[in-house]
Design a protein that fits this description.
heterodimer; A: mainly beta; 7-stranded mixed beta sheet; globular; B: mainly beta; 5-stranded antiparallel beta sheet; 11 strands
Chain lengths: ~120, ~110
């Protein structure tokens, strides 16, 4: 089936540094990618929607200058957490829509810990 | 704004018992999805429900959708320990295909 490959699966970084998370669609073209964050024991919250070749659309309350999203090709979307702080520590998951009848496929997630 | 309410939030059941998880949503949608999440893992797709009256079954799990009542159910039959996980329903928002997730139901099946 259609797979979204997400890397890294786990990253620890120091406060003030930036971290890039990649999501690649392996056997299909992802025109749209969704980025979520999930805090422990909570649900998924949509951060932004990225469309290939255009600027991402951010949800209310999400800082676009802090969470930089790039969707430069039909198979790659990236999320860069800039100037990371401990409160940015979370589980980040990307997702792509396969089509209305097939639903969404999710990346394996990235556990970010900022120390 | 689309809101999705899921209940119960926590469910502890004995093996062999039946139970139902409910998912209510606030505005019109005809696309609802159920996912399973194991600790530390991402989401695994369980069911895609696309029309009123849709019913799908996989093993001990059965999901249904009533778009008029804006309600979906996930029924667990004769629970086994392996079903222990967190289950999420998610509803597609008409604008931009966004998904809005319920809070999740933590299921613990006790042997």
């Amino acid at each position: 089936g259609a797979v979204v490959s997400q890397h890294p699966s786990r990253v620890i970084c120091k406060s003030g540094t930036s971290v890039k998370i990649e999501c690649r669609s392996l056997d299909f073209q992802a025109t749209t990618m969704f980025w979520y964050r999930q805090f422990p024991k909570q649900s998924l919250m949509l951060m932004a929607t990225s469309n290939e070749g255009s600027k991402a659309t951010y949800e209310q309350g999400v800082e676009k200058d802090k969470f930089l999203i790039n969707h430069a090709s039909l198979t790659l979307s990236t999320l860069t957490v800039t100037s990371a702080h401990p409160e940015d520590s979370s589980f980040y998951i990307c997702s792509a829509l396969l089509g209305a009848n097939y639903g969404y496929t999710f990346g394996s997630g990235t556990r970010l810990t900022v120390v | 704004e689309l809101k999705v309410e899921q209940n119960p939030l926590f469910l502890s059941m004995q093996e062999g018992k039946n139970y139902t998880i409910y998912c209510n949503y606030s505005t019109t949608s005809d696309r609802l999805y159920w996912y399973r999440q194991d600790p530390g893992k991402s989401l695994e797709s369980l069911f895609v429900l696309l029309s009123n009256g849709a019913v799908k079954q996989e093993g001990r799990l059965m999901a249904s959708l009533d778009t008029k009542a804006r309600l979906s159910t996930l029924h667990i039959t004769a629970a086994v320990h392996d079903l222990s996980a967190t289950y999420f329903c998610a509803v597609a928002w008409e604008y931009g295909n966004k998904l809005v997730f319920g809070a999740g139901t933590i299921l613990r099946v006790k042997s």
